[in-house]
Hints:
Layout: E1 3-11, H1 17-27, E2 31-43, E3 46-52, H2 55-66, E4 71-76, H3 82-92, E5 99-101, H4 119-123, E6 131-132, H5 136-143, H6 150-157, E7 163-172, E8 175-184, E9 187-194, H7 204-217, H8 222-238, H9 252-263
Parallel strand pairs: 1-2, 1-4, 4-5, 5-6
Antiparallel strand pairs: 2-3, 7-8, 8-9
Helix pairs in contact: 1-7, 1-9, 2-3, 7-8, 8-9
Bound molecules: 3-hydroxy-5-(hydroxymethyl)-2-methylisonicotinaldehyde.
Amino acid sequence: MNVVLSIAGSDSSGGAGIQADLKSFEAFNIFGTSAITVLTAQNTQGVNEIYEVDAPFVKAQIEAVLSDFNVSAIKIGMLYSNEIIDMVRDVIAPLDIPVVIDPVFISKAGSKLLNDDAIANLKTLFPYATLVTPNRFEAHALFGYRFEDPSTLHKMLKLPYKVLIKNETIELNDRLASLDTLYAEGKTERFTSESLNSKNTHGTGCSFSSAITANLALGKTLKQSIEISKSFISLGIKYAPNLGHGTGPIAHKIGGEKCQLALN
Ligand code: PXL
């Protein structure tokens, strides 16, 4: 069985962070392991408190997993502090397996998930990534990206690593669509799906990048992994259990099952 490691924060409400990552790995029959960077006290309405795990203990978790299992890919989510970023750079630099970095900054409800002084440092991890998956706000903070400004798109093409900008709403054939754009090796590739008007989108970013990591671990190409994961998220939203009073979680298990059925 394939083993994947997620280095990320814990979401007590189970829909985002480590919990979303493990559920997404499981949805693709991958054995998920974790190194927890922060604990959040949160629910579907927001993040109430953040408790940081110190960098040496995050490292101890990573080493415990890597020294015992043959890990086939790593997903990186909320890192929070410069100390954790520095430690994670040392860990991933010598590895030769797929690494997907979701540069988590701000939660859907607006809470800060990365210290302001750590944004530039986070970028130093990107040369070691197979893929970096920012949303448009994160892409703006990291690269000055603005969808409306073609000169910033041109800049994206020059980056020495692959970036997928997630979930921009566009009009396509007179309907709203969700667009992901891959900037890789000087070229762009677009992935679209139906835009879903749902309140149940908590943790979609984490789940999407974890599904991509799982599929890379299974040996799928980057393009196939993105396509499959986009369908997984759409189905997860469609069958969401509608929990909580705010932005509810998606249905990882059903999303995975329906997605596998569609693939066969
Ligand atoms: O979806 C971003 C995210 C990542 N990681 C953790 C989170 C959140 C959003 O709330 O709590 C731990």
